[in-house]
Amino acid sequence: MEAEFLLVEAVSCRxxxxxxxxxxxxxxxxxxxxxxDFDQEGLDLIPLHRKRMPFVVEGYQLPGPDLKPTALLPKGxxxxxxxxxxxxxxxxxxxxxxxxxxxxxxxxxxxxxxLSFHPIEDHFEGPQNKxxxxxxxxxxxxxxxxxxxxxxxxxxxxxAQLDLHELHAKVNYYAPALTALTVASPLYRGDxxxxxxxxxxxxxxxxxxxxxxxxxxxPKENLRLEFKPLEMTxxxxxxxxxxxxxxxxxxxxxxxxxxxxxxxxxTWDRLPDLASKQKAPGSARMKSCQRRRARWTIGVSxxxxxxxxxxxxxxxxxxxxxxxxxxxxxxPYRTYCVISSIYxxxxxxxxxxxxxAIGADDQLANVRRR
Length: 370
Description:
Layout: E1 2-9, H1 23-31, E2 55-63, E3 69-80, H2 87-106, E4 110-113, H3 133-141, E5 148-152, H4 156-159, H5 164-180, E6 187-188, E7 191-192, E8 194-195, E9 198-199, H6 203-208, E10 215-218, E11 224-227, H7 236-251, H8 271-274, H9 283-296, E12 298-302, E13 305-309, E14 324-327, E15 335-338
Antiparallel strand pairs: 1-3, 1-4, 1-5, 2-3, 5-11, 6-7, 8-9, 10-11, 12-13, 14-15
């Protein structure tokens, strides 16, 4: 898992950005963190960094004449977990690395804050640092966004059966609803983000979805499957759910052709519009949803854990209106996920047990799901 963090002043919580952050200072802070008890497998040496480690200074790479990076303008920091053998191990590793990173940053007057879009800064321009124009445009756009990347590899026998074209189609269909579960960036230029006269749910998704891909596939890295559109959260249980949702899409073996979306249905290119949707009125919509709920439910069992969720809706049907993640009292390893569309005015988590946040004191105006 990779997770990007905004940096703030430790005392005042004032958000910081590249004019006030220096790559050399932040890199020294990250290099000072002890990680000898962690395997470095799967961690590449990032340009301008001097050592492989589970931390990276994130920002915009300034290019030389050959487009090789010569300097970096920081936007924040990132945690990269080493390769883990289970979701639980990955999330626990992430929590440990997060605690160590916060301690090192605090010694230099910084804190890492959980937010998906910079609450003050909204625009960045830099010299072209990618050969492809669209990659350059996204590199500039990403200077104000922060998010997690959920990475999964599957056993070789499972990978051999994966249809990557079908996986792309499933992601294209379900990514908007999955992203809607996580929207957490309503702040823009120091105020609430407003669009078309209403408060928007996610300025990050609004910006990101017009240019950035929902997934990246890395065939040379044990077919690493990277899911990218979800937003930052301060709760470890949410990150665990992110993995389960992504695994559910990857491992779903039922025929995709039977539920392939129609032209103009819920697809990735509709996310900018979905990010600003408001609550749909009327109890008739709820009743209609209840009648059709059974047709939407997708279930899959992963490593003994069952996942049940409602990841989207069709144009001629109404969306489900509640969200929950809970565990069966009789079987704590059985997790149920029911995902609403963002027609919900406030997407809700109802937990029977809360393992706690990764750090309540490092939240900066974090959007708490009520």
